[in-house]
Amino acid sequence: MPWWTWLAPLLAWAALLAALVTGVGTLLTILCGASLFGAVIAAVHHAEVVAHRVGEPLGTLVLALAVTAIETALILSMMLAGGAEMAVLPRDTIYAAVMIICNGLVGLCIVVGGLRHREQSFRVEGAGSGLAALIVMTALTLVLPVFTTSTVSGTYNTPQLAFVALTSASLWLIFVFVQTVRHRDYFLPAADAASPETHAPPPTLREAIVSFLLLIASLVVVVGLAKVLSPAIEKGVDLAGAPRSVVGIVIAMVVLLPETWAAVRAAQADRIQTSMNLAIGSAIASIGLTIPVVVVAAIALRLPLVLGLAPKELVLLSVTFLVSAVTLGTGRTQVMQGAIHLVLFAAFLFLALVP
């Protein structure tokens, strides 16, 4: 195991503890930022070690599940601390995650892969079913609350919340079962012969366990550093005169860095199937894990919860899913498709800054 793969998380934990003890000054903010990126790179390395041991598509599921679980814990902790002011946090975070993944991550992977390999292919069967599940989960979670009449616009009553939580969790569990057991071949590349990892010996069980533990440690410290840096991010957003919702976008982008880095590396290595597995699996997990936990907390602790999106966000979400259906419907990617997704991602960022 390379020395930097355990040193980077260790230094990141040291920076996090120093920030918690002494507070975040200018120098420590810079140090925390550098440590965060080091932990991200280490997390991707350890995720790849685990993935090589367990094989696809379980390997991509490990990283997606770990990141989403920690992101959910972060959202819940901020809701408990913030009270009524955090009623829209789950909505904003899930919406940002879906837009970042479906446009930013997918678009970047397709462009990087297209520039290097001209065209790349993936299995339509897995990508199509995953996208269909994501569309239904997003519609139930973020769109329908705008149109229901039992409560004020944008909210659900308790039975509706319970129904959405149950259906979201069920669809996620079914997707994981299909991805890993029932139709595992739908998420495997048609030909892996060109990949050097195909012929590389898998790591030992001990190496995989150590990498898994270091992966969790790296992801936890990434979320911790993101939370520590959030006041500095908020200050920068205020100085720029941008809306406060931009803070949630920045934090979501930081939390999704490990998956983005891993997906882009896979696309560059002509493994676009792995990139699609990461993207779709992460987006589904961001709803299927987050919503049930948030709903249980909101019902049990009587926390306010607003899920419905504004009209501008509804339009962008609809266009994103329409374009994604076209992109994922052919099983082949090239630069033009990626450019379209990146333009949508740029529109999402621009309209967040200039609503």
TrEMBL record:
<dbReference type="GO" id="GO:0015386">
    <property type="term" value="F:potassium:proton antiporter activity"/>
</dbReference>
<dbReference type="GO" id="GO:0015385">
    <property type="term" value="F:sodium:proton antiporter activity"/>
</dbReference>
<feature type="transmembrane region" description="Helical">
    <location>
        <begin position="276"/>
        <end position="302"/>
    </location>
</feature>
<feature type="transmembrane region" description="Helical">
    <location>
        <begin position="160"/>
        <end position="178"/>
    </location>
</feature>
<keyword id="KW-0472">Membrane</keyword>
<dbReference type="InterPro" id="IPR004837">
    <property type="entry name" value="NaCa_Exmemb"/>
</dbReference>
<feature type="domain" description="Sodium/calcium exchanger membrane region">
    <location>
        <begin position="26"/>
        <end position="180"/>
    </location>
</feature>
<feature type="transmembrane region" description="Helical">
    <location>
        <begin position="208"/>
        <end position="226"/>
    </location>
</feature>
<feature type="transmembrane region" description="Helical">
    <location>
        <begin position="246"/>
        <end position="264"/>
    </location>
</feature>
<keyword id="KW-1133">Transmembrane helix</keyword>
<feature type="transmembrane region" description="Helical">
    <location>
        <begin position="338"/>
        <end position="354"/>
    </location>
</feature>
<dbReference type="Pfam" id="PF01699">
    <property type="entry name" value="Na_Ca_ex"/>
</dbReference>
<dbReference type="GO" id="GO:0005886">
    <property type="term" value="C:plasma membrane"/>
</dbReference>
<feature type="transmembrane region" description="Helical">
    <location>
        <begin position="94"/>
        <end position="115"/>
    </location>
</feature>
<keyword id="KW-0812">Transmembrane</keyword>
<feature type="transmembrane region" description="Helical">
    <location>
        <begin position="314"/>
        <end position="331"/>
    </location>
</feature>
<feature type="transmembrane region" description="Helical">
    <location>
        <begin position="58"/>
        <end position="82"/>
    </location>
</feature>
<feature type="domain" description="Sodium/calcium exchanger membrane region">
    <location>
        <begin position="211"/>
        <end position="353"/>
    </location>
</feature>
<feature type="transmembrane region" description="Helical">
    <location>
        <begin position="127"/>
        <end position="148"/>
    </location>
</feature>
<dbReference type="InterPro" id="IPR052946">
    <property type="entry name" value="Alkaline_pH_Ca-Antiporter"/>
</dbReference>
<protein>
    <submittedName>
        <fullName>Ionic transporter y4hA</fullName>
    </submittedName>
</protein>
